C-alpha cells in the first residue's frame, strides 16, 4: 500500500491528510482568522500517523501545496515537508494550490476559476475545465469589472475572495460557490498519487514554494 502524507498550508486552512492509494483515509484541518500553522501542523501530522496505526516509516512520499498563497503559510508547510522527505529518504511531491482548490468543485460544464486572496482587489487565479485541465496559467492580477469578461461559458468562482469580488464580477454567467473558501489536503490525495505514479517529484534540496509576487495591473475599459 502506498501511503502519502499531504500538507496544505497555503491559506488560512492548516490541513493535513493521509492517503492510501490516492484515497483520503484521515484528515485534520482548521481555518482560523489568525494563522496557527506553526502550532497546529506538526500536531496534526503526529495525530494522523498515530490514529492510522502506522509509523512515518510506512510513508511512501510527502506531498505539499506549492502555492501560490500566503508567504508564511507556504514556508511553514514546505519546511515541514522537506524535513520529513529528507529524514525519511522518500520523494517530495509538489501540488498546485489552485488546482487543489478547483478540484473541490463538482460540475459537468463551464469553467472553474479558483482565486486566493492577495489583499485589496488582488488575487491569485487560474482557469480549469471541470476535469481539471488547465485553460489558463496562474496569474496574479487585480480584479476589475472587466476581468474574465471575454468568457461566455458558465464560470464557477471558488476561494476566499468571493465577498470582495462578487460585487465587481456581476455577469449573468458568473456563479460564486461561496461555501468553498480554502484548498484542503483531502483534495490533494488523488492529485499527489497521480504524480507519484508518474515519478513527478521535486528536488528536496532546491524546491521552493511558488510565491508569485508580481501582479498584473489591468486598465478599465471605461
UniProtKB/TrEMBL annotation:
Domain annotation Gcp-like: ranges: 36-139
Record-level GO cellular component terms: cytosol
InterPro entries in alphabetical order: ATPase_NBD, Gcp-like_dom, T6A_TsaB
SUPFAM superfamilies: Actin-like ATPase domain
Pfam families: TsaD (PF00814)
A GO biological process held by the record: tRNA threonylcarbamoyladenosine modification
PANTHER family in alphabetical order: TRNA N6-ADENOSINE THREONYLCARBAMOYLTRANSFERASE (PTHR11735), TRNA THREONYLCARBAMOYLADENOSINE BIOSYNTHESIS PROTEIN TSAB (PTHR11735:SF11)
NCBIfam families per the UniProt record, alphabetical: T6A_YeaZ (TIGR03725)
Protein name: tRNA threonylcarbamoyladenosine biosynthesis protein TsaB
Organism lineage: Bacteria, Pseudomonadati, Bacteroidota, Flavobacteriia, Flavobacteriales
